[in-house]
Amino acid sequence: MQRIKLYTETKPVDSDKSCSCCAVDFSEEKPSFWKRQILIRSVTAGLFLVVGLIAEALTPYKIIAQLMFIFAAVVSGKDIFRKAIRSIFKLRLDMNCLMSIAAFGAFFIGHGEEGAAVIFLFFVAESLEEYAADNAKRSISRLLKLAPETARVKKAGREIVRHVHEISIGDLIVIRPGEKIPLDGKIVTGHSSVNESTITGESAPVDKVEGDEVYTGTMNEDGYLEVEVDKKSEDTLLSKIIRLVEEAERKKSKTEKLINRFAHYYTPSVIALAFAVFLIPTFFLGHAWDVWFYRALVLLVVSCPCALAISTPVAMVSAISSAARHGVLIKGATFLEELSKVKACAFDKTGTLTRGRLEVIDVIGFNNHSSQDVLSIAASLEARSEHPIAKAVLRKAHSENIQLKEISGFKSRRGIGLEAQINGKTYYTGSGNLFGNLSIERPEELLNLEEEGKTSIFISDESKVIGIIALYDSVREKAPVIINHMKKFHIRTEMLTGDNKKVAALLAGKIGIDEYHAELLPEDKVRVVEDLAVRFGSVAMVGDGVNDAPALAVANVGIAMGTIGSDVAIETADIALMHDDLSKIEYVISLSRKTMQVVKQNVTISILIKGSFTVLASLGLINLWVAVGIGDMGLSLAVILNAMRLTRVKA
To answer: What is the C-alpha to C-alpha distance for residues 243 and 23, in angstroms, rounded to an integer?
Structure first.
């Protein structure tokens, strides 16, 4: 046995390059120093506040107490005060301004303990919000650690360890049992079980053999593999997933945009109201200025829109991150919100409701043509097509060792069939739609096959049919279940297919679909989806992401099925399911509805508590402690915890 030597060759890595393992900015975790700094500041400010309260309550040295309160406010409020000053100069008053004015006002009237408490508790609330946002993304950031930074490259009988940045397309990498796959590629030697849960959310290992694709960050469980790299580190599927989630979390939903616009005008209005609460009773009604000044400060604090501002984004980020963990990529909060409103869902048949792998089960020859002749002519024409029927025909021809013929003048007639010349004679292969164009009589055998629910294509010359090939595509096991669940969601289901009406009717009856549309061209599918949108207001389209791209694009929400390795599907669809699992559709609809429920709960509770506390503050029934502890920090924490429940929605 030849001994393979292992060498380590590392070169300086270009910092400008990026890959799935080193440089996806949005989900890189905060450095531990940041966490330590927040903790140190919180503990230090909290100690100053406690010491100040003790000094004020138990000693006659009030000046020491006030100094402790000032130190507590400075330590915890450094960033808050800086942001407040910046917003004032920009003439865009924000919540930092509200808290800063309230704190300075409290110190001014001799309530240093409450001024310090306002800043300290607001600092804690802001830190909790930032922690919540980081926590929601942490599930995605863990993907970065799953991708190895180095790989073994096999060259000239030896293995060289190189950084993934230095590996080129076409290089051969070695992955041993128990190792993670460092780059996307195709297996050229070996077979194994690969755990792809990081990509698809499915924990069951997938058997991989020579010719199969493998993906960055997945785990090679029990076999030796040699893989030919077909994507650079920055172009791997894992990198695309992470970038997709980054972009999704930046895109705001309609609800988020509405709340942001509201908050933009809300803060200046609250400041104006607080001045009115102070000035009118004091200067026009002759009441004690310090009483109403204090009430105005409480009003400022209790009216801080923190909880309202984070009520929607924290829920959306939690849902999008959770979905990505379960193999569902949502390209923006807008689509998550829109999906909750869907009243009708159109399903493509082939590859969505069926397995998408047609198999030839009958080959019938006519007019002195044997089944081998028919299969040879059909396979020769279909060899230049990427349609699933073409692949099935070619597999059948290969299994029977049928020799392909030389063709010329090849033409593809979209949605109808193919045309080419063999030995100077023109032949056609295609669906029943081609009969009308060629004025050829439909054979009875074709009708019989269609009644049995088989997909059929015919092969003809310019004057007569020479054969029929019948194919069958089995229904996905979960198709009837998901259609039943859609009805429980009160969503109408309709099936779109280019297949004939009898095949469509049999499948629709078998799985319980509400209505079907057969013999459709791609533009016909677009028309049906547009009609559904007119009738029901909001419609989703579920397809394979390639053939159904136009219909996916016009739907309110386009959902692509089984998109591992499919760049077109990820680019076209609004939601991409990374595995051929129909149950994920039920999951993502359930997630969208629960997300919008949480958003409504958060917004409602924020408005009710803020409104109630505003009235109580004007009447002098609450103080600054209660205002910030319950009306601001407590409410923000409740909103965050409510939103984080979405991470526990089961797929």
So the answer is: 11
pLDDT, average across residues 30-39: 61
Looking at 232, 263, 282, the residue that finishes a domain is 232
* Phi, psi for 453 (deg, rounded to 5): 80, 20
pTM assigned to the model: 0.65
Question: Of 94, 171, 184, 348, which residue is the catalytic one?
Answer: 348
Model confidence pLDDT, tens digit, residues 108-117: 767 777 778 7
Give 66-79 as a DSSP string: HHHHHHHHHHHHHH
Q: Find where tokens 């016909």 sit.
A: 524
Candidate from 386-400, 451-465, 485-499 with smallest mean pLDDT: 451-465
CATH assignment at residue 544? 3.40.50.1000
Query: Burial, 498: exposed, middle or buried (Cβ in 10 Å; 0-12, 13-18, 19+)?
Result: buried
Q: Do 344 and 484 have their domain in common?
A: yes
348 flagged as catalytic: yes
Work out the percent of the chain whose per-residue pLDDT is above 90.
14
Do the domain assignments include residue 36?
yes
Host domain of residue 155: 6-17+150-232
Q: Identity (one letter) of the amino acid at 117?
A: A
Task: Tell me how crowded residue 97 is: count the other CB atoms within 10 A of its CB.
Answer: 24
- Give the number of C-alpha atoms closer than 13 A to the C-alpha of residue 647, restricted to the C-beta side: 18
The CATH number of residue 453's host domain is: 3.40.1110.10
Q: DSSP 3-state assignment of 93?
A: coil
Per-residue model confidence as pLDDT tens digits over 242-258: 666 666 555 555 666 66
